[in-house]
Amino acid sequence: MPSAGVLALQGDFEAHRKALAAAGLDAREIRTAGELLSTDALVLPGGESTTMWKLMEGTGIPEAIAELAASGRPVLATCAGAILLSRRITHPDREGLGLLDVTAVRNAYGRQLDSAVVRLTDLDREALGDEPLEAVFIRAPRFRDLGRGVEVLARRDGDAVLVRSGNLIAATFHPELARDGRVHRLFVEAIRRGKPRDAGKLVGAR
Amino acid sequence: MTAPLSIESPFSSDAFRVKVGLAEMLKGGVIMDVVDAGQAKIAEDAGACAVMALERVPSDIRRDGGVARMSPVSKIREIEAAVSIPVMAKCRIGHIAEARILESLGVDFVDESEVLTPADEENHVYKHDFKVPFVCGCRNLGEALRRIGEGAAMIRTKGEAGTGDIVHAVRHLREVFRQIKGLTILTKDEWMAAAKNLQAPFGLVAWVAANGRLPVPNFAAGGVATPADAALCRILGAEAVFVGSGIFKSSDPAKRARAIVEATTHWQDPARIAKASEDLGEGMKGIEAAKLVEGELLQTRGW
């Protein structure tokens, strides 16, 4: 059974562990670069991205995320996690990890009073089926300037809110807080399908 | 014909889920008390997951006395403009109008707080009627469930604010978790008596008994002055930490704030907390909570 890790620096990492458990996968909490490199798949949870950047400074975690993603291992990133993966970030402006070719506009819908549960109907049917997808938006960002390799799996009023780019899945909302398990199942299926890693590298990382 | 008995629960509404959703996002983080935009910026740069706007930090309220009220509107606007992280603000217990004003200002969370002078000696705000989420303090499980019953989307144990003494935060965390554990071993026949003893709504008592936790995130506050204090709260089960006077009453607020953030995340790694705790300068002087007389306690406000 492949192992999955949830980056547990700050945010709703526990909700992701529960959602993964419901999709049939045991995940552990990850707080160091070493732990990160020894996992087969990674979740970057929701929370405050500014806090996560601060906690990652000088830890080697950004480099480890890049290495994990480059090795083809599946990554699921939601809200703040998706912001981390982005090429560029606004409000305030800064560079992201550059693994997902989008610009993330932080707090794009406004403050908490503009947070909402939305039933998304503009879906990629092959990935998600026909049923409306329950999506919890909390002080959510918006994806802008999507690169060519970025495939849109769900839209809200025309805006891309769930995207896939190679082995990365990113949402501006929180599938981990919804009663709908489809996004996590998509991720777990990708893990089960995943190509086996270089065994030597795995031993080295541990 | 009598109407069928059907009681709608506000807890399963989208509105309530969105409120608890923001509380979920703050887990594992540090929420810092700030009085102006300058402090808010320091807090954000140090890695705070949210800031709490208030007129004076608790230790100043304690020292200077007088009526402590909601932060001035201009200060709240200034803080909202200065940072991109969530902004919380305190209103007085039962002060419906202050809460409505804070909501209209677009704050992300309202803390109906015992640190301010209560406006109502008997009633708290009915929080389900608001779109903005609320956090409330508690000293025990009954108090937590009464506040959740009124619509609080987050609970924080009260501790004793403005002292820099962690002992009451520990007492309240221990008490809440002991009482939760106590409920989980009861049979259903015993739930109503438990609700009676806790003076808490039956539905919430039953939920806690069945699930072994509070139905909303459970944070700690009151007396956190060091990285080790923050780690202790996490060890005892708090999912995040509020820090009031402990940061801006210390000699190097930016450094201390950063260290408390580090300790809150890496609470299981003592070596890392030790490293973060090096060369922090003077902590807040503090007051031993046991030396306070009953009338000086903030935690006994509200019920």
Task: Summarize this structure briefly.
Chain A has 206 residues and is an alpha/beta fold. Chain A has eight helices and 14 strands. Chain A has one domain: 3-Layer(aba) Sandwich (Rossmann fold).
Can you walk me through this structure?
With 206 residues, chain A is an alpha/beta fold. Chain A has a single domain, classed as Class I glutamine amidotransferase (GATase) domain (Rossmann fold), CATH 3.40.50.880. Chain A has eight helices and 14 strands. Chain A has helices at residues 13-22, 33-37, 49-56, 61-70, 80-85, 125-128, 182-193, 199-205; strands at 4-7, 27-30, 41-44, 75-78, 86-90, 94-95, 100-105, 116-120, 122-123, 133-137, 142-144, 151-156, 159-165, 168-171. The longest helix of chain A is centred in the C-terminal third of the chain and has 12 residues, at 182-193. In chain B, strands 7-6-5-4-3-2-1-8 form an eight-stranded parallel beta sheet. In chain B, helix 2 (37-46) runs parallel beside helix 4 (73-82) and helix 12 packs antiparallel against helix 13. The termini of chain B are far apart. The interface between A and B is medium-sized, with 34 and 36 residues.
Please write out the topology:
The complex is a heterodimer of chains A (206) and B (303).
Chain A: E1 4-7, H1 13-22, E2 27-30, H2 33-37, E3 41-44, H3 49-56, H4 61-70, E4 75-78, H5 80-85, E5 86-90, E6 94-95, E7 100-105, E8 116-120, E9 122-123, H6 125-128, E10 133-137, E11 142-144, E12 151-156, E13 159-165, E14 168-171, H7 182-193, H8 199-205
Chain B: H1 14-25, E1 30-34, H2 37-46, E2 50-53, H3 58-64, H4 73-82, E3 87-92, H5 96-104, E4 109-113, E5 134-138, H6 141-150, E6 154-157, H7 167-184, H8 191-198, H9 202-211, E7 218-220, H10 227-235, E8 241-243, H11 245-248, H12 253-265, H13 270-276
Parallel strand pairs in B: 1-2, 1-8, 2-3, 3-4, 4-5, 5-6, 6-7
